[in-house]
Structures
1.
Amino acid sequence: MAEVSGVPGASTGSATSAGQVPELVEVPELVEVPEPVEVPELVEVPELVEASGASGSAAVAARPADGASASAPTLRIDARDDRVVATLDRPDRRNAIDQAMVDDLHALCAELEERPRTLILTGAGGIFAAGADIAQLRDRTGDDARRGINATVFDRIRHLPMPVIAAVDGFALGGGAELAYAADIRIGTPRVRFGNPEPGLGIIAAAGASWRLPEIVGHARASELLLTARVIDAEEALAWGLLSSVHESDEMLGAAHAIADRIAANSTRATILTKRALLAPRGDHPAIDGELQAELFDSADKRARMTAFLERKKK
């Protein structure tokens, strides 16, 4: 995977040396932004664009008919029978999440809701997503914020039927971090940098950080990260449980596919219902577990898998 271009302090390293990579909180454009339009690629505020529900294609997520433009697609899609790899592909803007990307993510979600498969999300150019286009963001109003535009698409990704794996290299800041928080599983490289520097621009992280991050790392750690706008590296993210594992850049996508392989070996329906149970409110348990299990107990797939298991034990 390519080196991070033009981002100070984002050097390569091994998983064991992640803690030796310099902290990035001193980078001025992350927290001190007197002219937001000058650093569109580094800082994200969630509510960027109006959500679209258009359908995507297997090759490239299609732009909605009423929002079509001549711009290139923002996602590169590798669609397979049991998984889809979606690469955020605006490397010249450090994969900043703009209106076109939100539209393309909605199109991808529509496809995966219709035909459930595991989703692997990653970024081009050695960066996951380093924020939003501040030039767009500066002109947004309170009405734009109330629509919860980025929050809506990230929540749609969170509730896709099959698991979502975020394979994170380099920066995952602001909305890029919140997109990663929406995944079921996150892995990364030693170059990973997570942070929500929105307060430096006079706004909050409103597309999932305030409720998903506490669920992942605990309320105290989430509070420290969000209230200080601090950026953490791969070593700290791994220790906090924000990352499940750390891999070299050229091995990360293979590691994501290995996780997808393990998922694919299981019953698709059982996986879908396991995720549904995991996302259910605490008050719905244990009743929901019994209902989901009842569906599976009566399935032909359960009988076939258990029969095959018992036959293998006889040999």
2.
Amino acid sequence: MPAKPFIPVIAGPTAGGKTELAIACAKLAEERGLVPQGKSEVISADAFQIYRGLDIASGKPSMAERQGVPHHAIDIVEPSEPFTVAQWLELATNAIDDIEARGGWPIIAGGTHLYIKALIDGLFEGPPADETLREQLRAVPPAELRTELERIDPKAAERIHPADQRRTIRAIEVYRLTGTPISDHQSQWDRDTNPLADRLLLVTLQWETEAINRRINARVRSMVEAGLVEETRRLLESGNLGVQAAQALGTKQILEHIRPPETSGLSLDDAIERVKIETRRFAKNQRTWLRRLASGPADRPHRLVVYPDRDDIQESMQIIVDTCFMAS
């Protein structure tokens, strides 16, 4: 019986072309007869594409952009609902099993660090949430929370975006409840217990700063033209926008514009500029952890680096497909 192909995990910064490359790989594998027609399927590793109605802000691919390639972990919960890394990991691993059982080829694509890390290394669950402590922390000014995080857990502070209040609060919560930084807990994850680890091909998209910033600025303009403000207003007025979904880049900044003037009063132009700035900062953080991922051990998972700003997408997808199917 031939060996199963590697499962590509395409990780890259926001606006970095992850979905486009995943779909190109899916199509190429089917064209070559390596996978039956319609059996290459993409599993999204994006913490905001899971939300129904959060389409523009999350950069969710349209049905036309998906080109008939089935997608998983998209539009699965309401934006009022919380969604955890553990839930995504269970969904993703179940989808992998199901796709392969049907003779298909799963492709993971996304830029959510904790999703990718959980798939590769396993999951640190940590202590259960302490809602009383969380309420206390939510009342603390964000700058003070950031200062505390940098003091108690510098490694986590490097990884967590300053505007990501939810993960900042969780990191502080774990420290206060256990006395140990969350980064130390996470470093104890044991990838040797992960049966998928040696079947994954981690593909990291490494962009030059100027090139990815140009793409981010262009994407933000396209998001606004596509109706980002209207999408955000619709979600807010529906009463269906939860705390977690409201942290999406684009949604968060536009909310500051459309809420009552006494609350924010941010002009639309300033809100759009803030989206660009915060997205570029986020992408910088993504590039940092992507470099770390790319420099890890070579075989668990196997690793491949792609440079989209200088490599042709046709060449990149051929290398990925060739590498994944070389042992099958």
3.
Amino acid sequence: MKKVVLIMLMAIIAVPLLYGIPTKFIDVFIFESEYCGGCSSMNEFLQELSLEYPTMVIHRYEISEEESKKLYDLFKQVYNLDFKGYSTPMVFIGKDHFGGYGPTSHQLIRKKIETCSESGCNIALCEHRDCIVVYDHTATPQVSGKTFLLPFLMIAGLISGLTPLNSHIVSRVKGKGVPFFGAYIITSLIFCTALSTVVFLANMIVPLEFPLAVVAVALGVLSLGTGVVSRLPVPSKIRTALDDLTAEGDGISLFFAGVGSCLASLAFSLGIYLLAVFNILSLGFVHRIAYLAAFNGAAGVTLMVMYAVGSEKRSVYHGLIGIGSIALGAVFWLLLSM
């Protein structure tokens, strides 16, 4: 009788303690849509991953349902996501979130699941679904090659400024380079910010890793080709307008010349810009701005060097921007494949 009472007492004490120990289950929340081309691909990937890690618990939510939208809004608030609408597929594991469905997303999710399998990553919804409790002591996964991100962006920024059009305009800016350089860098930074939003949304629909590498290489080849035939892939009216602005020489004219030169030079450097903004999508807002500042600051350094040299050699710059764009596209794809 005493043994039975002792066992019951031990059970009464042990059961609450066991309930207090976090399990090693891995909660995976995925928001999807029937109109989402990549959602089925992400679901297949998660199902295959769950065979390797049986402790995965997949929670699916169809975004067309109002309750799912409310829950998505709650996740966006808790995870500090600053985009509008309901991008799908969107996966939440522990304290991290993963958008899109391409190789980068798969790589990050697999790394997260691997680390979570050791200590567990739990996401618990409150009774009325008005709050979320997250248990996750694992590190946020990084894409292979992220350690090279800053050098990559700095080199990309330096190369992005080496366009034949920039060499043509900079050689005509005399004595008042500050308005021109300031306008160029500000325009470039604003464009990068807007472009990152477009790339983020597009990456939710179609994996962009390979297409962006192809665009960078293709524009590099185009630059080399136009260098051979001594032509600029920029309409003559735009070049004439920029020449007129630099000829006027006042601060306002040079400011608008900087804006125009930055935008027109995208005919050469758009592929490089796309690679740069794609690489920062997984970063927080503050880090994104810091890395974009580094990228655009490097472009500004290139412009100032061109200004100091004062030599307009279009064929040389055709070759530099062309080879640079091709090399960056190849390196970008190589780092993602690591």
